[in-house]
Amino acid sequence: MSAQWISVIGTSAFCFGFKYLGHSVPELWLNHPRIQRINTYIPIVLLTGLVTVQGLTEKTKVVIDHRAAGLGVAVVALLAKLPFPLVIIASAITSAVIYRIY
Amino acid sequence: MSVKSDSLSIGITVGAFGSAFGAAAVASHYSVLQACLLSLLTFSGASQFAVIGVLGSGGSAISAIATSSLLGIRNGLYGVRMAQILKISGIKRIFGAQLTIDESTGVALSQRTPAEMKTGFWYTGLAVYIFWNLFTLLGALGASALGDPAAWGLDTAIPAIFLGLVWNRLSDRKAWAIALSALVVALALTPIAPAGIPIMSTVILAVILGWNE
Predict the structure, then answer these.
(1) CA B27, A54, A9 angle in degrees (round to 5)?
(2) What are phi and psi for residue A61, nearest 5 degrees?
(3) Could you tell me the CA-to-CA distances from B179 to A102, B22, B118, B140, B190 in Å, in that order?
(4) Is B53 helix (H, G, I), strand (E, B) or coil?
(5) Is A86 on the interface with B (CB under 8 A)?
(6) In the structure, what pLDDT confidence band is assigned to residue B155 with cuts at 50, 70 and 90?
(7) Interchain CB contact of B206 with A (< 8 Å)
(8) What pLDDT score was predicted for residue B6?
């Protein structure tokens, strides 16, 4: 079985499993403030990790290229409070233009 | 009435990003069928982008599954909250669990009465589910015809989506500090750790920084 198939099945099983478990366990188990705090931080660190690795690295190197430029534009658009779809489109266009020039 | 129309507009807007997912999945060497199955069975945007992102950038299947699953834990905590409002069991609980995501929970919890909460949850969940899956298929088919993803900015659109998702969560100084430390850890580990590990390692930061107030 290919890595793609394993990842599709594994991800689907775990993600649905967590959803179903949440609907089935007594609330007091997960109400501990520590669990709540860590759960708030997990998406922040993982999403930042994904931005960093996919935007600023290539295999084992830190690389500043068309992707960094696109992400820079995204940051500006987010600071300007543009709607989410515009942020992504502006970022992608910037990246594509620089990629095609170089 | 307004709950239902809110639900529908959220469903269409969020669902449209399914096309970005479908395209990104194909660009990361997933088949159209695999992209569609991820949207049908996983149905959680951040987890889906994470799994194809980690595998697509050379990570192992294990680290791809671990990253996406860790991102999926929050849906479980939403489920705990929603279970008390929905009070469902059997087959309905299976469907309700699958529709438990950021948007359905968010709309439900922003309503005033329990009846409106239920309506908000089911309508938003179903609307996002239908449009997300439809657009995934369209995006995957479109990307198959597109060629080099970088020429269309797709290689940047994905981290930009992650950036937009994390941006909403940077509500205070501590959140910013946590995000910046995750950035530093991911960059520092990139030259020395196998692909996928730099992203997963950031979870240790969440545990350490969340342990005490």
Answers:
(1) 55
(2) -115, 145
(3) 31, 27, 34, 31, 17
(4) helix
(5) no
(6) confident
(7) yes
(8) 83
